[in-house]
Amino acid sequence: MKIIKYSLGQLQTNCYFIVEDNQCIIIDPADEAGFILEELQRRKLKLVGILATHGHFDHLLAVGEIQRSIDISLYLSKKDLFLIDRLEETVKHFLGYKPTTLPIKNIKNFVIENSLKIGNFKLKIIPSPGHTPGGVCYYLPAEASAKAGLPILFSGDTLFKQGIGRYDFSYCNKDDLKHSLKKILLLPKDTVVYPGHGEKTTVAEEKKNFPNFLVS
User: Fold this and answer.
1) What pTM, to 2 d.p., does this model score?
2) Angle 76-138-10 (CA atoms, 0-180°, nearest 5)?
3) pLDDT score recorded for residue 145
4) Distance between CA atoms of 170 and 119, rounded to whole angstroms?
5) What are the residues facing 202 on neighbouring strands?
6) Sequential DSSP letters for 107-163
7) H or E stretch covering 8
8) What's the Cα-to-Cα distance from 85 to each of 69, 79, 91, 102, 151, rounded to whole Å?
9) Please, which contacts does 135-144 make with residues 24 or more away whose CB atoms are closer than 8 Å?
10) How many CB atoms lie within 10 A of CB 173?
11) What ranges in 32-86 are assigned the alpha helix state H?
12) How far is the first Cα of the chain from the last one, in angstroms, to the nearest whole number?
């Protein structure tokens, strides 16, 4: 298994390809759909699923155009569907222009706190609300990880290297975010964390960074 990271769009959101043999799932196709489609073709990969860690526009701008070229589902918590409905107005508010995005279709709402099986891939869904109501992390245990013996977590905007997701929007919840972080920090210390922005980190590193937030 191989993990390939691209930082895409104005907000430099991390888009991840998880590759096994010639199959690929994409986590957070942030933007630049043409580039993503070219990379799939160049690497001779078969896309079998698109997964969103949450519903913010900067993690999903490429989805509609990818779906126009490939008949593929988007997996997203139903609690974040309202963010899809307001995607265009949100882009205009934050980036100052009206996007020429295509509608997102074929959305599948997974069963929370369950395993998700797509093609050759099996990931555990860890609910991580707080930054958004329907935020999730995707967890690959050690035996399924891309690094021999190391578990892997795709944390979206819940946890970054030395940072956490903002919780000042009207739909955010600070207490939920605290609970989500506590769950993540209970994972094995050597878990490699791939966040929605910035560089990767580990659970061990991040355990040192948030004690005051978690008890305040």
Assistant:
1) 0.91
2) 65
3) 61
4) 37
5) 192
6) EE-PPTTSEEEETTEEEEEEE--SSSTT-EEEEE-GGGSSBTTB-EEEEETTEETTE
7) strand 2-8
8) 22, 12, 12, 12, 34
9) 135/53, 135/54, 135/77, 135/80, 135/165, 135/180, 136/53, 136/54, 136/77, 136/112, 137/53, 137/184, 138/27, 138/51, 138/53, 139/187, 140/1, 142/188, 144/1
10) 16
11) 33-42, 63-69, 81-85
12) 40
137, two tokens: 């992390």
Separation CA 43–CA 209 (nearest Å): 38
Place of tokens 């609300």: 129
Percent residues over pLDDT 70 in the chain: 92
pLDDT band at residue 52 using 50, 70 and 90 as cut-offs: very high
| Two structure tokens written together for 17 | 């390809």
pLDDT score for 146: 58
Handedness of CA 110, 146, 16, 172 (dihedral sign): positive
């580990």: which residue's tokens?
202
Six-digit token string for 48: 């079998």
- The total of other beta-carbon atoms located within 10 Å of residue 198's CB is 14
Task: Please name each of the domains of the chain with its CATH number.
Answer: 2-215 (3.60.15.10)
**Residue range 144-156: average pLDDT?**
79
> What are the tokens at 132?
């958004």
Q: Which residues pair with 123 in a beta bridge?
A: 116
Give the Cα separation of 119 and 196 in Å (integer). 23
